[in-house]
Amino acid sequence: MRRWGHFVYRRRKAVLAASLACFVLSIVGLLAGGEPINATNYDVESVRAANLESAQLPSTTGSSFTLILTSAQSTFGQPAFESAVNSAVAPLRSDSRVSALATPFSVAPAQVPLMVSTDKHSVLVQVGLKIDFSQARAQYGEIRGEVHSGSLSITATGDVPLAYDFDTYLASDLRRSEVVSLPLALILLVIVFATGVAALLCLGVGVFAVLGGVGAALSLAHVINVSTYAVNVVTLVGLGIAIDYSLFIVTRFREELAAGHSVEHALGTTMATAGRAIMFSGLTVAIGLSGLLFYTGTALVSMGVAGAIVVAVSVLYAVTLLPAMLALLGPRINSMRIPILQPKPFGEGLWHRLATWVMRRPWTVLIPTVAILLIAGSPFLDLQLANSDVNQLPTSAEARQGADLLQAQFPQVGQNTIAVVVDFKDGAPTSPTNVAAAYQLAQRLTTLKGVTGVRSYVTVEPSATLTSYQVLYSQPRNALAPSVQTVLTTLTGSSIAVLDVANPYFVTSDQAHTLVRDIRAIDTVPGATVQVTGDTAFDIDLVNYMIGHTPLAIGFVLITTLIVLTVLLRSVVLPFKAVLMNALSLSAAFGALVWVFDQGHLSNILGFTAGPLDPTIPVLLFCVVFGLSMDYEVFLLTRMQEAWVRTGDNRAAVADGLERSGRLVTGAAAIMACVFLAFALASVVTIKSIGVGMAVAVIADATLVRALVVPAVMRLLGDANWWAPRWLRPREHVREEIAPAA
After folding, report:
1. How far lies 328's CA from each of 264, 429, 703, in Å?
2. For residue range 39-78, what is the model confidence (pLDDT) as tens digits?
3. Cα separation of 522 and 542, whole Å?
4. CA nearest neighbour of 498 among 478, 515, 519, 479
């Protein structure tokens, strides 16, 4: 790294040109990138069953949405209401993207009651689309804009409007967070550096890194499914971490210049110390994010890949663009000074006095501080998990308003449905043997607690017997009644039959979960495989999937981090201490997450509907926060390591390291917390919760943990902090790199 610093100084214009070329590639990626999409295909029963439906029932699993048209004056049955509805949806009939349009005035009489509200002031219109889901979510705004009325209020809901609203609000959240966080970051950088040029340089590197990360993520979308949340995660992580890396490098460079060294010597030492530290720090952050790769088939994988890319881009710019700019600027990095913010001379600062004070009374400081962090984390013991739903959107979102209206006014349509997919091993679903198996299963399903009805091809006529159904389906399909043909088309395929089990329970309720488990507990159906899907089944399977894969992910992150830190710090003890310190920071973050979003505290202030956390959020928070917390630990311990190698005095090393890095760690944490809290202003609860959780973790980490717990623990461990077997101890040339001569 020292040689690299000298190389950059001598070839600064070439390195700067290469960095700008990377920036141009980032812009190309932004403009020509693919479309993010939330696709999941992890190996659980509900997903396998849904894939069977999609393969054999494409006409019923394709893109569609529902319109709810309401009149304050007219009711269903009045000519004026029918005329207004037909007029409002007329443009859709001529839209080439629309494959079907079903209104209460065009369907079979048996279906009419399902499409009219309980007060008869609202009706449903089902809109089928010829385009696939990704095209539908992109073009939905244009299609929805065709529907309007002067006398009716119109609300849309369904998977397509839900996806469109998520995309719209996520994009809006991203713009809002950038507008809020960038000016705040600049103000804090000015306070930390007390110079304008250094602050602007760090902010510029942060913007370059974010653009590079987003461009890479969108380019990756051409190859793999990239979640719509990935862009937000890239901005969230990239902006904070790139500014942090720049902050540490610029500070070390200014420190070397202040010691009287030449620009080239200062840059070489900066790369050998701060540059080396950020290389390892970037590796630890990437290791944390790599834990997300264990959740194959979920959106977390793309978030982990995109996050690791933006970390790599941040490190790349921090060791190329930034040192090249420093080489060009030289002493001018200190331009635009603000005298009132200049730090005190070394040895007289707050952090040195704080470290000395803590080390005089380590137990007195350690016990209550750890107790506070553990108490803050105690709400996590009451964690409730559930798959995210429409409540992730704000109440102003049309898709959410439509879902609420559907639940309230159309109970037969808005109620929860559990889909039982029967895959027959031999013959078509209409063969006598398979009809008998499906009929017996349907009868058993109707006896389960909470089941209000079973819709299937063997319950289409409630009074019919098994023999009647076997005779009925022995006829050619075109000889059957239209209503029966419709059921066969929508609920049977070449080898499968779907039995829709209606129930009044909320999707994520304990009653709905119990019902799914009761259905799955039914004995094997002869000659067939039975699988359960639907929103409640997805909810159960996702939570179990996340819980089942988490131990391996956490184990990998912990073990790999320990190895990397052992190589960096040349100590066996410090890596374990670092992991324990991170656990304390995570404790506070997880506790805050449950206390705020699960239990509902501050919901009125932050503007969201309290409810169980999406199971991906704690996992994402762990992987991101673990890496970011280790980021501060690396910078703090490397400065302490320098002092230890130089002096051999543990107390002096702790005080020296904390003074030299404490102000920076606090400033970096403040910047990162501002970035994260800007995301707490998001409309989508998932992004809001990640922002709050990460902000709490960073604040707790940089204050209570790094300022109090770390020096207390290192004082108690004494020289054992730096113990390592002989083969791991740094040799003379390595010692010079770790602690260069003054």
Report:
1. 10, 76, 35
2. 778 889 999 999 999 888 866 656 889 999 999 989 999 9
3. 21
4. 519
Residue 274 CA to residue 244 CA, distance in Å, equals 11
> What strand order describes the sheet that includes 453-455?
453-455, 496-503, 416-424, 528-533
Q: What is the CA radius of gyration of the chain?
A: 31
Round to whole Å and give the CA distance between 312 and 283: 8
Q: What three-state secondary structure class fits 422?
A: strand
Strand order in the sheet with 122-129: 98-102, 122-129, 64-70, 153-157
d(CA 69, CA 67): 6
Structure tokens at 434: 């398979």
Instruction: Report how far residue 122's alpha carbon sits from residue 608's, in angstroms, rounded to the nearest whole number.
Output: 28
Task: Report residue 153 as tokens.
Answer: 């209020």
Task: Spell out the residues 6+ positions from residue 111 whose beta carbon is closer than 8 angstroms to its own.
Answer: none
**Separation of alpha carbons 617 and 48, rounded Å:** 24
Query: For 117-130, b where at least 16 C-beta lie within 10 A, e where not — what string?
Result: beeebbbbbbbbbe
- Among 490, 484, 499, 488, CA closest to 57: 490
Q: Which one-letter DSSP state was computed for residue 343?
A: P
Q: Are 501 and 417 in contact (CB under 8 A)?
A: yes
Which of helix, strand or coil describes residue 497? strand
Tell me which of 3.30.70, 2.30.30, 1.10.3470, 3.30.310 is the CATH number of domain 416-503+505-539: 3.30.70
The 3-class SS string of 556-615 reads HHHHHHHHHHHHHHCCCHHHHHHHHHHHHHHHHHHHHHHHHHHCCCCHHHHCCCCCCECC
Two structure tokens written together for 420: 């039982």
- What's the residue count for the chain? 742
- Spatial neighbors of 418 by CB under 8 A, at least 6 apart, are 500, 501, 503, 512, 515, 516, 519, 532, 533, 534, 536, 537
- Has domain 348-380+570-742 been given CATH number 1.20.1640? yes
pLDDT exceeds 90 at position 34 = no
Give the Cα-Cα-Cα angle 185, 190, 193 (nearest 5 degrees). Answer: 120
What 3-state DSSP class applies to 95?
A: coil
Domain(s) labelled CATH 3.30.70 in the chain stretch across 416-503+505-539
Count the neighbouring beta carbons within 10 Å of the beta carbon of residue 614.
22
Given pLDDT bands bounded at 50, 70 and 90, which one contains residue 657? confident
The alpha carbon torsion through 494, 496, 501, 507 (nearest 10 deg) reads -100
**pLDDT digits 0-9 by tens, 613-656:** 999 999 999 998 888 888 778 888 888 888 888 888 999 888 88
Q: Which residues of 210-240 are buried (b: 16+ CB within 10 A; e: fewer)?
A: bbbbbbbbbbbbeeebbbbbbbbbbbbbbbb
Return the closest-CA partner of residue 614 out of 209, 369, 300, 296: 300
Residues 209, 238 contacting (CB under 8 angstroms): yes
Amino acid of residue 466: L
Position 739 confidence tier, pLDDT thresholds 50, 70, 90: low
Determine contact, residues 595/525, Cβ cutoff 8 Å: no
DSSP codes, 508-527 = TSHHHHHHHHHHHTSPPPTT
Torsion of CA 649, 654, 659, 665, to 10 degrees: 150
The pLDDT score that the predictor gives to residue 737 is 57
pTM: 0.85
Q: How far is the C-alpha of 702 from the C-alpha of 613, rounded, in Å?
A: 26
Residue type present at position 231: V
> Residue 731: its pLDDT value, please?
59
CA-wise closest residue to 696 among 620, 557, 591, 581: 591
Closest by alpha carbon to 631, among 244, 309, 318?
A: 244
Can you tell me the distance from the alpha carbon of 668 to that of 222, in angstroms, rounded to the nearest whole number?
Answer: 35
Segments of the chain assigned to CATH 1.20.1640: 348-380+570-742
